[in-house]
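User: Before I run my own analysis I want an independent prediction to cross-check against. Here's the chain; please return only the structure tokens and, at the end, one sentence I can use as a sanity check.
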Amino acid sequence: MRKMTEDDLKAAFAGESQAHVKYMIFSEEAKNEGKPKLANVFKAIARAELVHAKNHLKALGGIKKSSENISAAFNGEDYEIEEMYPVFYEVAKFQNEKEAVRSTHYALEAEKIHRDIYKKAKELIDSGKDFDGGTVYICPVCGHTHASAEAPDKCPVCGCPKDKYVKFSA
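Assistant: Structure tokens:
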């Protein structure tokens, strides 16, 4: 693939990915405001943006077999832990941006767990097994991730109570 096309597809992938997430957040806000039809519009268009992002990633050759996808995910989490979030956190502290300090701290703590989960998943997938980490619970406030039979009594990062965790199970 030629460099300009590759750069364009990467930019399009980033833009469509951001639009997807932003519209899902807008959908949640509309729902919380008692506007379910508007929430549905945001959610539907968010899905279209996800389709666009997937098509761009596919054209870039970024969708592979699970073992390679896990490696890519692990490497992304590792970069966020070792380089990106520590720098963002320090800049936010230096500039006294309290919300940015909080959000980068929350993200960094969650990314550490994500990297560990991907490491375990990679070992299992490479040995011919599926991931066996049980149910995954996500804190809706900070993103703390917990793979176990049940959520912690309270989030160790932000203190959110157990009953607020979002449950993901296969």
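Sanity check: The radius of gyration is 18 Å.
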